[in-house]
Amino acid sequence: MNITKYQRPAVIAWQRFSPFNSLSAELDRLFEAPLAELARDTWSPTLDVLEDKDNYFILAELPGLKREDIKVSLEDGNLTISGERKSETRNEGTSVHCVERFSGHFERSIALPVAISTDKVKATYTDGVLTLTLPKAEEAKPKKIDITLN
Questions:
Q1: What stretch of H or E contains 35?
Q2: What is the separation, in whole angstroms, between the first and last Cα of the chain?
Q3: Do residues 108 and 83 make contact, with C-beta atoms less than 8 angstroms apart?
Q4: Does the residue 111 lie in any domain?
Q5: What CATH number corresponds to the domain at position 123?
Q6: 78-85 and 55-61 strand pairing
Q7: Residue 84's closest CA among 45, 135, 39, 27?
Q8: Among residues 112, 41, 107, which one has the least CA distance to residue 70?
Q9: Strand (E) or helix (H) holding 134
Q10: Do residues 33 and 39 make contact, with C-beta atoms less than 8 angstroms apart?
Q11: What is the domain range of residue 115?
């Protein structure tokens, strides 16, 4: 299979259609991007971020990984989930027709908007889903202020 680089057809750009000129330039830039950048060996797990009055909850889909292949760190208000999914070895004589599952190193970072009680963070990993419970620090929780009458 031969891959031919996209070549923009010769078109005269009219000034009155200038919004289309910038769109055309952006499309040209997209098609000129190196294919190596589009086929990187990195992937990124999907996340859900939930919050209640006391905690943040992060759920990350990491199917097929072992607990020891996952790293979680919390530093300077940034939560980072990283690890590696190893590619499966193929038996000799096996033909591969399609590979859609990603393998290789991954890393996701989330900037947390409030301080977290780092000594109370909990992490569980069940059925390919990593669940992190991040308790908000007391100073970050909403406070009720009573109003007194004078």
A1: helix 35-38
A2: 84
A3: no
A4: yes
A5: 2.60.40.790
A6: unpaired
A7: 45
A8: 107
A9: strand 129-135
A10: no
A11: 47-88+102-140
Report the pLDDT value the prediction gives residue 36, as an integer from 0 to 100: 46
Per the domain annotation, does 23 fall within a domain? no
Do the Cβ atoms of 115 and 136 come closer than 8 Å? Answer: yes
Report the alpha-carbon distance of residue 85 to residue 65 in Å, rounded. 6
The answer to whether residue 116 is domain-embedded is: yes
Residue 58: burial class (beta carbons within 10 Å; 0-12, 13-18, 19+) = buried
The reported pTM is: 0.65
Residue 149 lies in a domain: no
Sign, CA dihedral 50-52-53-55, equals negative
Q: How far is the CA of 22 from the CAs of 9, 34, 48, 128, 140, in angstroms? A: 16, 21, 35, 44, 45
CA–CA gap between residue 123 and residue 130 (Å, rounded): 7
Domain count, the chain: 1
- What pLDDT sits at residue 91? 80
Structure tokens at 13: 């750009």
Mean pLDDT per segment of 10 residues, for the chain of length 150 residues? 56 52 67 54 84 94 92 93 86 82 88 91 96 90 80
Kindly state the tokens that stand for 111: 């900037």
